[in-house]
Amino acid sequence: MRIPVFRREPGAPVSAMARALVALPASVSAVLVLLAAGQIAPREERVTPLAAHALPGGSGKRFTAVEVLFPPGARAAPHRHGSAFLYAYVLEGEVRSQIEGERLQTYHTGESWIEQPGAHHLLTENNSADRPARLLVTFVSQGSEPLKIPDAPPRGDAR
Q1: Bigger pLDDT: 36 or 156?
Q2: Entry pTM
């Protein structure tokens, strides 16, 4: 992996970001530089919307499809999908998933699962350290309802 080297000409102004990086320990500065350069995979999933359409009949329900990319080692925070019915299909890689009250499952390319409305999704992660995982996820939901509702942080958590 080649990391770009940035040089400042003598007399050129030093940016606030550069001053902040210099003030941090070297290991932290290196991680921030690698993150900014795209050299370290994010630890969270990335969602790409594919389609969203109102269902016919005036029910107010909506069909939505998204692609979810889990970089190596990425994991989703615990969450719910409100009153949405969900179908997830593994396009690539393998994903570990656990719904509250059910056992931990590992799903491989070509496998799928469903989540009933109101299900509490405790774990979704790509357990691979070097390969991404991709899901196609479809929802049937109420039109104005958010598709993903993260768990509230524990009390006393200042996030």
Answers
A1: 156
A2: 0.70
